[in-house]
Design goal:
Helix content is 29%, strand content 26%. By secondary structure, it is of the alpha/beta class. The strands form three sheets. A ten-stranded mixed beta sheet has the order 7-6-5-8-9-10-11-12-13-14. β13 and β14 form a beta hairpin. The relative contact order is 0.10. The mean pLDDT is 91.
Amino acid sequence: MGAHHPGRPPDPYADLADVAAEARAGMLRTIEASGGWDADPSWRTAFAEVPRHLFVPSYWIGGGNGHDRLRGGDPDPARRVRWMRGAYVDAPLATRLRDGELLSSSSQPSLMARMLAELRVGEEDRVLEIGAGTGYNAALLAHRVGEERVTTVDLDPEITASARAHLHSAGYAPTVVTGDGALGCPERAPFDRIVATCTLPSVPRAWLAQCAPGALVLAPLATGLIRLVVDGPEQAEGRFLHTSAYFVPLRGAARRTEAIPPGSLPRRALHSELFQFLLALTAGVLDPRDALGLWLREGRPARERYGVTVRGPYVWSWLDDPEGPYAWPLPEA
């Protein structure tokens, strides 16, 4: 089991220790009830011991007049308590905005727990995280496998700088790299596990070349989570997990979108998460009306029936069978 640095700096919010303990216990109960770490209950220890509030010294919440910023350094004691309790709510927290656009966030803890559990991490695995965010997920990984086996990459130098600072405040020092996540981190390869905390348009080939044989890749794609088994530098295949997943897109990557004419599709279908998943997965390739016909014929298929295959220069998504009749090319990433 990995461990944090023994010389962890003192918690600057020690006066809120009781509030933090109560709020963290509530978060753990919520994750437990959601089944977040059912696939690997040992992750509970990491969530219990890594203090999330040190990774979100400030965050934005929606208010009646726009965005309201809560911060641990607020001179108002009541707002400081509100900040601490909010840091452990099972919800994503917006940590960086630019001109009203969300650039970075701390993901929903129960979804983080599910992703980490489904990553099937072994204690000797080397892990690459794409999207450093606040550094919280890297700290959880470092707690599990040891900081020397964890690398996290982000394109924005401001994000990586703040992630390093947050990690230091919590007593962890994984490798934090400023760079294009789509290119991976070849100088730290090979990796046994790659996990992305940003939505991808496709599977970056560079990742596969940096994977050890049998490595797993877990990443948000469309509105789901794809888990791939890597069989070689140009070959991988896997299915989507059952859960939905909404993340900030990988910056610098092309986005596939297709406008749907008003009234062209039934409202019931448009309100279905599973149909929205199919639309996102096939955007720009399959006409939305054809997607609706397929979806209805196949009995409104769940996410687990879909998968992704990478073979040499070809990357495609599919329903039920990678060699079956329903397959759609994915763009270059």
